[in-house]
Each structure stands twice: as C-alpha cells, then as structure tokens.
Design a protein that fits this description.
By secondary structure, this protein is mainly alpha-helical. Among the domains are: about 10-100, no CATH class; about 235-275, no CATH class. It has twelve helices and two strands; from the N terminus they run ααααααααααααββ. It has a two-stranded antiparallel ribbon. Strand 1 and strand 2 (about 270-275) form a beta hairpin. Helix 9 (about 170-175) crosses helix 10 (about 180-190).
C-alpha cells in the first residue's frame, strides 16, 4: 500500500513539536499496530519509507545506550506515523485497519469513488499502473550550474511534495542525490527556514530539487526569477557568493544602538532588517 496523499500534512507540526517517546515504547506501539490490524511488516516499512536493514536494526538491534536508537531513521519515521495517528483520531489507520473494524458508509463511498477515478485515470498518466504512484523522473543526465536558490526549509518542502507525488522514500532520494543517507535524513528532520544549513546534504538536496524541476519542465518561480535578476545586477550573499536568501531569525546580529533595526519580510518573503 502506498502512503495516503496527505501523509505529510502534519509533518511541519511534528518537526516543530518533536517527540518525547522512548525507543522502547515506540517498538511496543509498532508491535501492537501489527498485531491488531491487517497491516503487514513490509507494507508498514513502505508506508513510513524505511528499508529492511534500518527496520531490523531498530526493532531487533542491541544498543548499549537505548537512546542511541533515536539515531536510526526508523525511529523518526515511526514516531511521525504515530504522531499522525494521534492527530487523525477515529480516522487513524490503527482504527480503520483494525481487525473487525467496520468502515462507515461515507468511507465506503469515498473509497468507491477513488477506485473509479484511479481506474479511469492512472496516477502517473496514460500507461501508468492504476493505484501506483509514478516513478521518480530520471535525472541522471540533468545538470545544473550548482547555484542554490532555496532556503533549507524551502528545499525540504519541495522534497516532501516529491515524496507525496512519486514512488520514492527519503532513502531513495538520498541515493539519487548521491548523499549519505544519515546526513540526508538529518537534513530532512531539521526544522525552521534555515535548519540544516550547514548539513552536507543541503546542497545535494537543493540540486536534486532543481534537477527534478528541469526534468519535469516546471517553470521557474517568481521568487527564483527575482533572485536571478538580483545576481545579474551584482547583488549576492557575501558569505556564499550566491543569491541572498534572507537572514536566519534564530541567529544573533550586532547592530548600532544609534540606528536601531528590526527584522521584517521583504516582497520576496525573505527576512531582512529595516530601520525603526
């Protein structure tokens, strides 16, 4: 079973709030879900986007320090799944997929309508397999100029959209981006507009987003065009030499008391200083 199209709807909230669940309790929740529903292990792994190796190490590995299991990608993927379950309430998979659960008439009608639509128009367009997401576009021959035009937060948002649209996982995106999985996964888990800015996977992830844009023939955004125009006029970021993506509101900045400034948004949505 593929993830629901709205699977990542609560992801930003999850990143902001984090989780306090222990690895041991999370394993218990996973085992209970598998025991009380018709969800199989392989299906659950695909649903949360982890491979068998990561799963096996988290579920059955012997950790000297129990908390070191939180470094395993399965911990965070499963933690988000149960965070989402709590948000969904009666519509949670643990309830709708439970043995003996009876679907409501509304759910049955919705499923019937969705099945009809899928049969009529496959998700990937003509020639795609009904009910299955299309494969990630081949970007092996696509090249970029190496310039990053998006903040880490914008890159993560684009990649979450990719995960919803295509048959892909964080691990497969890391492979396509030629980036270490652990680093890429940590980048995806970072929060805030500039969280993960110094992560080694930020640049490869941004390049992957650009390659997918080029491969799909998607037009440049209004912001992208404005940033390119600024660079053409000589306005660049002093630190990177690339486009000015705005200030990080979590950092401290020195300023003169004689000319007090405050942080605001410009017409491109960037954090900038303005005079009081």
């Amino acid at each position: 079973m593929d993830r629901p199209s709205d699977y990542h709807d609560f992801y930003d909230d999850f990143q902001e709030e984090g989780t306090r669940i222990t690895p041991g309790r999370l394993r218990n929740q996973i085992n209970k879900l598998l025991e009380t529903t018709d969800i199989k292990i392989g299906e659950f792994q695909r649903m949360i986007g982890v491979n068998a190796n990561s799963w096996g190490k988290f579920m059955h590995g012997k950790y000297k320090d129990p908390w070191s299991a939180t470094q395993n990608g399965t911990f965070w993927a499963a933690a988000y799944f149960f965070y989402r379950e709590a948000k969904l309430g009666k519509q949670a998979m643990g309830k709708t997929r439970a043995y003996g659960a009876t679907a409501t008439a509304t759910t049955a009608r919705s499923s019937s309508t969705a099945a009809t639509a899928t049969a009529a128009t496959p998700a990937g367009g003509p020639g795609a397999t009904p009910g299955k997401k299309p494969s990630l576009p081949d970007v092996s021959a696509v090249s970029t100029d190496g310039t990053v035009f998006q903040t880490p937060g914008e890159v993560r948002k684009e990649l979450r959209n990719v995960l919803q649209k295509y048959d892909a996982s964080v691990a497969s995106l890391a492979r396509v981006a030629s980036s270490p999985y652990q680093s890429f996964n940590n980048f995806m888990k970072a929060t805030g507009e500039f969280g993960g800015r110094d992560n080694q996977s930020y640049h490869p992830a941004a390049m992957l987003v650009e390659k997918l844009r080029l491969a799909s023939g998607k037009e440049k955004s209004k912001k992208r065009k404005a940033l390119e125009a600024e660079m053409d006029s000589g306005v660049v970021d002093r630190r990177t030499g690339g486009p000015r993506l705005g200030l990080d509101p979590t950092k401290k900045y020195l300023m003169s008391a004689a000319s007090p400034l405050y942080m605001t948004k410009d017409d491109l949505g960037r954090n900038v200083f303005a005079s009081m």
